[in-house]
Structure formats: C-alpha cells, structure tokens
Design goal:
Layout: E1 71-73, E2 76-78, H1 85-93, H2 96-117, E3 124-125, E4 128-129, E5 137-145, E6 155-164, E7 168-176, H3 185-191, H4 195-201, H5 205-219, E8 230-231, H6 235-249, E9 263-264, H7 266-273, H8 283-289, H9 300-314, H10 318-321, H11 325-349, H12 353-361
Parallel strand pairs: 5-8, 8-9
Antiparallel strand pairs: 1-2, 3-4, 5-6, 6-7
Helix pairs in contact: 2-5, 7-9, 7-11, 11-12
C-alpha cells in the first residue's frame, strides 16, 4: 500500500454504519451467528433473516426468542398435549400465549431450583469436605429410552433432580419426549410409556434437550449449585444418548454440558469400592445394597433420585470422603478405564475378542 494512503472504513452490510460500532454479530462479513445453547437459547433455532437484527432506536440486536419449556405439574414437567414434532414447533411459534406460558413455566422451574438451593449448606471445598458432610447435596440426571443402543435408540423421558443427604428429594423436573419412532413393547414394559402416549403428550426432543441445558447452565450461576456434582448412573449410556440426540435434532451439535459440572457415576464408584462383590450391579441391586428405597423403579425421576441417594451413601466411605468433585471426576476416568480393561480381558478368555475391542474403545463419561 502506498505511503499515506488509508483504507476506507468498512461498513456493516445491514445497518450501513461502521462495523466496529455495531453489535459483534454484525462484524466480519455481516453474517448471522449460529449460536448454541447458552442459558436458554436453543441450538436448534437460528435467528431468521426476517427477524429484526437491530433495534430502531438503540442500535442493539433484538433479543432472540427464548426456549419453550414444558408445562409444570406436580413437582415436575409434563408437556402440552396434542403438539408433537416440528409441527409442534410451528404451532407454538405462531401462538404468543403458548410461548409466554411455557417460558413462564421454565422460569418457575428455575425459581424453584434456586429456592431449594438456598436451603443447602456448603460442603464442597477446595481441600475436601468441610464439617457439614452430612448435609451433602447433589444434582442428578436420568433418562428412559426406546432401547439400549445409544447410536440408534431415542429418549422417552429426561429428569433432573436435586437431592440432599439429610432431607431427600428437594426439586425435580421431568420432560416427556415424543421420540418420533415406535416405542418397542419391551421398552414400554420397563418404563410404562406407550407410543401413543408419547405422541399425544410428548414434547419434541430439541425442546426437551434445550430445557435441560438451560437449567444446568442456570445452576452454574448459583453460588450453592455451581460446585455440586452431577450424578448419572452408567454415565456413558445416558450422556452418550443425549449426545446422539443432540446431534440428531440440534443441527449436528453434540451434548455441551457446562464444564463446571463434574460427573459422579455410582456404577464406577461401586466397582472401585467393592470390586469383588458378586451379583448384579444394576441400580436396583445397588439401591438394595446401600439401603436406599427405590420406589417406582424405571421412571427417570425415581431412578435419578435413587442414583443420587446411592452416591451420597458411597461418599461416606473413607476412601472417597476427602476427595472433591473435581478429584473424583478425574479419578473415575482412570477407574473406569481399569474396569473396562478387566472386563475386556474376561471377554477375551471367553473368545469374544470383537466385543472386548468394543469395550476398550469406550470412554467415560462420554
């Protein structure tokens, strides 16, 4: 460039003004962002070219639509009836009253969660547990599905819970999901949800996934919740299924759980604490072993609460009691790898080399 020559200041292709003074999304080539889920913004939705990009007077970008939560009833969520799939999305998007109602219900769930959190006692510290270890609390997540293959099967229900060691279940939110496929009779026999019920009452998967992530991200902004671990029984299955569903329904994006959350898996912890105990290690078997009452087994809310109760019992063990959630998460990665290696060795002795290779290729928690 010749000396003294100055380039013309770039202008925004939409507003005509200087890009440096515009909203960050209008910088560069003036393209609209493909935002992910950030505390209530669903990944499956994109700002349309027809929507207002900047306010007429303030010059600010118009606020994107908020997500559509499920309707609250009886301590959890049930979804509006008669609205399913993409047709449900179009129907709700054309009805401002439904949008407002569902947003209010998600806000109500967040408010209930925060009110429950205010009753907690801080027990997790950087150096381990403080003197109130009996007041431990954890968040829990569980799903019920159409089968056991994370790559092809679909979610039928998702539940989030908050459980205290001294007071039990403090909060619950559950989404009934329309998987968009037939629910096999074998799966219905387990969780009791039929294809007709899910189609008539279930919400679309992207709405449920965005609702779950919205509440998880909200929890990271509360002083009493940000340090709590997330309990997931057999985490590779549930988190793997959530990841597959996210890629299927949310524009190819995988499951992006807040990084602050550390996962506690009762299955991994139990195998580490008692590796030579015989018998099954299902949630029902572990609940019986640790003296946890499991009522309404194979409903996602009951299983999530029972998983939390099992972990709270496991944390009483002296081998775990002095570890923080961060330390427990990191050590579970190694413990799970050792457990997979041991299981693969057992499979090879049985001549099942291909299955052993599949086991070794898995990770934890995803």
């Amino acid at each position: 460039m010749p000396p003294g020559r100055r380039l013309a200041k770039p202008t925004c292709q939409i507003t005509g003004g200087s890009r440096s003074s515009c909203c960050p999304i209008l910088r560069g080539q003036g393209q609209l962002p493909q935002h992910g889920t950030v505390l209530g913004l669903p990944r499956s939705r994109r700002v349309s070219q027809r929507e207002p990009l900047v306010g007429r007077r303030t010059g600010r970008r118009a606020r994107p639509p908020r997500p559509w939560p499920a309707r609250h009833r009886g301590g959890g969520f049930v979804v509006p009836q008669g609205t399913t799939g993409t047709g449900r999305t179009r129907q709700i998007a054309s009805d401002p009253n439904k949008i407002e109602s569902m947003v209010n219900q998600l806000e109500d769930a967040r408010s209930r969660l925060f009110r429950a959190a205010e009753t907690l006692v801080e027990t997790w510290t950087e150096d381990g547990l403080c003197q109130h270890a009996e007041e431990h609390a954890v968040l829990g997540l569980d799903t019920e599905t159409t089968g056991v293959d994370t790559a092809t099967d679909r979610i039928v229900t998702i539940s989030l819970v908050l459980v205290s060691a001294s007071r039990g279940l403090l909060w619950e939110a559950t989404w009934l999901v329309n998987p968009g496929v037939e629910i096999p009779e074998a799966a219905t026999a387990v969780h009791g949800i039929t294809t007709q019920q899910a189609a008539a009452e279930g919400t679309s998967p992207d709405v449920a996934l965005d609702g779950v992530l919205s509440l998880l991200y909200a929890a990271t902004h509360h002083r009493m919740l940000e340090s709590l671990p997330l309990v997931v029984f057999n985490a590779p299955f549930d988190i793997g299924l959530l990841d597959a569903e996210s890629r299927r329904h949310c524009g190819g994006l995988g499951w992006k759980m807040p990084q602050r959350f550390r996962v506690l898996d009762p299955l991994v912890l139990d195998k580490h604490l008692d590796p030579y105990r015989g018998g099954k290690r299902t949630l029902t078997a572990q609940a019986e072993h640790y003296g946890v009452e499991l009522v309404d087994a194979h409903s996602s809310a009951a299983d999530a609460a029972a998983s939390c109760a099992v972990v709270l019992r496991q944390l009483r063990n002296i081998r775990l009691a002095t570890l923080t959630p961060v330390q427990l998460h990191e050590r579970q990665i190694d413990w799970a790898a050792a457990q997979r290696s041991s299981f693969a060795k057992h499979l090879r002795k049985q001549g099942r080399g291909q299955k052993a290779a599949e086991v070794l290729s898995q990770g934890w928690p995803l």
